[in-house]
Amino acid sequence: MPSSDWRVPARYAHAEHISAAGFAWEYLRRDEEYRRDYSRMKVVPQGDPKARKAFSERWGLRFRRRPRSSCRPCPAFLVALAAA
């Protein structure tokens, strides 16, 4: 992932117009520990609910699934939980 110089305001002008969840994602995706955990999660079988639960609880994320009526298997998508 290319790094951006956080000291250059023009590079973050878009942040004024994103949702709280979008802002949280911008922060989270730069976290080295999260990126390492995510890399480990990509190799865990989808049928391992304990690993998925531990990952989602640690990072405040939840997995969203497609409806079961879908013909094709689809990987779970990560969705940031919006702060209430």
Describe the structure.
The structure is a single chain. The chain is an alpha+beta fold. Helices cover 37% and strands 10% of the residues. The chain has 3 helices and 2 strands, in the order H-H-H-E-E. It has helices at residues 20-28, 32-42, 49-59, and strands at residues 61-64, 77-80. A two-stranded antiparallel ribbon has the order 1-2. The longest helix is centred in the middle third of the chain and has 11 residues, at 32-42. It starts with 19 loop residues before the first helix and ends with a strand.
Count the helices. How many? 3
Order of helices and strands: HHHEE
* Main sheet overview: 2 strands, antiparallel
Class of secondary structure makeup: alpha+beta
Explain briefly what this protein structure is:
By secondary structure, this protein is α+β, with helices and mostly antiparallel strands.
Feature tags:
single chain; 84 residues; alpha+beta; two-stranded antiparallel sheet; 3 helices
Topology:
Layout: H1 20-28, H2 32-42, H3 49-59, E1 61-64, E2 77-80
Helix pairs in contact: 2-3
